[in-house]
């Protein structure tokens, strides 16, 4: 069902970018799920509308085709709700090829995670490990049937020597003297209006209030070290090109006891010279002789499961498509498999010997 994004944001069809931004901010604040009278569903809808209307290219497509176009993937990888929340937690940036201005949402989402994104949650943000994104290439059949893959990546893992706390084993973790364990210090700032006192995170202990008496000799107090890691990844049957797998907690280790980031594996499926994929179906082409097309018979067709027989009825025209049920791709996260569609092409003979030529001439006289 097509949605009216202009109506959702309450702006006219000719609204300027500024108007759209303004309307989005107002509406988003109004329906923020954490506020009294907030409405998560509406909030998401507003966000969806803004994602499209704030982008010139998407807006033009929307004006032309309506919102259904987005659901068919026409807008190509727009950010989903999960992406936005993930990004919000990380504090902005850009994800894949979608530019997303966190400035617009940062203050709105800020309240949802107990601390603003503009500095208030600085300490928490720094300790979480970063997400890692990698690409993984699959053979055509691996994507069809699933596979067990081994991947190798270099990432920051928790330091074994200090068990991730950054202190050399046997040494103590002591209260930071600079901030007296508070993690915060008063700082004097010289301005034209005179000296102003501000409160900020303690530089000595990075706001933790505690300090290692002796830093771990292996990780220099970071609690994590860079290492080559091998991982087994189970690829489910039916994954397709452009899909991504999320492996929670498999990104970089957090600083000290911080939460690990996530690992995102972007799937690339190699093309196959014979099999072409369309959703869960597999398309192939096969040539048959003119006489077989006319008289009918049986041919052998290659499928991802091996060869199968295909009955060609008499009077088959070139371009006719036959369906081999259940010979397609395993449906991802569903039961069953797609089909194989076999397009039959009637081959015109190229080199004829004398007898073949005579026979065809005879047929020609018969009007065939
Ligand atoms: Zn260590
Ligand atoms: Zn301190």
CATH T-level fold name of the largest domain: Chaperone, DNAj Protein, Chain A
Give the strand order, joined by hyphens, for the main sheet: 10-11-15-14
Query: Which ions and ligands are bound to the chains?
Result: zinc ion
Termini distance? Answer: 52 Å
Low-confidence stretches: 70-85, 87-125
C-alpha Rg, in Å? 31 Å
Q: Give the strand content.
A: 25-35%
Total helical segments: 11
Largest sheet: 4 strands, mixed
- By CATH reckoning, the class of the largest domain would read Mainly Beta
Task: Tell me the number of structural domains.
Answer: 3
* Class computed from helices, strands and strand pairing: alpha+beta
CATH architecture descriptor of the largest domain: Ribbon
Percent of residues in helices comes to 25-40%
What global shape is seen? elongated
State the CATH superfamily name of the largest domain.
Answer: Heat shock protein DnaJ, cysteine-rich domain
- Write down how many β-strands occur, each being a DSSP E stretch of 2 or more residues: 15
- Topology as H/E string? HHHHHHHHEHEEEEEEEEEEHEEEEH
Q: What is the average per-residue confidence, as pLDDT, rounded to a whole number?
A: 82
Write the layout of secondary structure elements.
Blueprint: H1 5-9, H2 17-31, H3 40-53, H4 56-65, H5 68-71, H6 81-90, H7 102-110, H8 122-127, E1 132-138, H9 140-145, E2 147-158, E3 173-175, E4 184-191, E5 194-201, E6 210-212, E7 224-235, E8 244-247, E9 263-269, E10 276-278, E11 281-289, H10 290-295, E12 297-303, E13 306-312, E14 320-324, E15 340-347, H11 354-365
Parallel strand pairs: 1-9, 11-15
Antiparallel strand pairs: 2-7, 3-6, 4-5, 8-9, 10-11, 12-13, 14-15
Bound molecules: zinc ion (2 copies).
């Amino acid at each position: 069902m097509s949605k009216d994004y202009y109506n959702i944001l309450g702006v006219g069809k000719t609204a300027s970018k500024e108007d759209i931004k303004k309307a989005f901010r107002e509406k988003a604040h109004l329906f923020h799920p954490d506020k009294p009278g907030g409405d998560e569903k509406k909030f998401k809808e507003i966000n969806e509308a803004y994602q499209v209307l704030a982008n010139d290219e998407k807006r033009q497509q929307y004006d032309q085709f309506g919102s259904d176009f987005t659901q068919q993937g026409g807008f190509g990888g727009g950010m989903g709700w999960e992406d936005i929340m993930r990004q919000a937690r990380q504090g902005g940036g850009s994800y894949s090829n979608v530019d997303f201005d966190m400035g617009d949402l940062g203050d709105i989402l800020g309240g949802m995670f107990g601390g603003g994104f503009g500095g208030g949650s600085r300490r928490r943000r720094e300790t979480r490990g970063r997400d890692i994104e990698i690409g993984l290439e699959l053979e055509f059949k691996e994507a069809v049937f699933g596979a067990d893959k081994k991947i190798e990546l270099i990432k920051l893992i928790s330091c074994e020597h200090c068990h991730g706390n950054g202190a050399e084993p046997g040494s103590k973790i002591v209260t930071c003297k600079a901030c007296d364990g508070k993690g915060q210090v008063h700082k004097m700032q010289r301005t034209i209006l005179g000296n102003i006192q501000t409160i900020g995170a303690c530089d000595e202990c990075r706001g933790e209030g505690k300090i290692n008496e002796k830093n771990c000799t292996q990780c220099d107090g970071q609690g994590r070290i860079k290492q080559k890691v091998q991982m087994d990844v189970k690829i489910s049957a039916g994954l397709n090109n452009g899909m991504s797998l999320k492996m929670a907690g498999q990104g970089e280790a957090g600083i000290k006891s911080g939460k690990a980031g996530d690992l995102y594996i972007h799937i690339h499926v190699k093309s196959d010279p014979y099999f072409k994929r369309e959703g869960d179906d597999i398309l192939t082409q096969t040539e048959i002789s003119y006489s077989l097309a006319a008289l009918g018979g049986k041919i052998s067709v290659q499928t991802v499961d091996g060869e199968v027989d295909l009955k060609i009825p008499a009077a088959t025209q070139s371009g006719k498509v036959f369906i081999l049920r259940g010979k397609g791709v395993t449906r991802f996260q569903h039961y069953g498999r797609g089909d194989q569609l076999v397009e039959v092409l009637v081959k015109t003979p190229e080199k004829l010997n004398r007898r073949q030529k005579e026979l065809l001439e005879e047929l020609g006289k018969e009007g065939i």
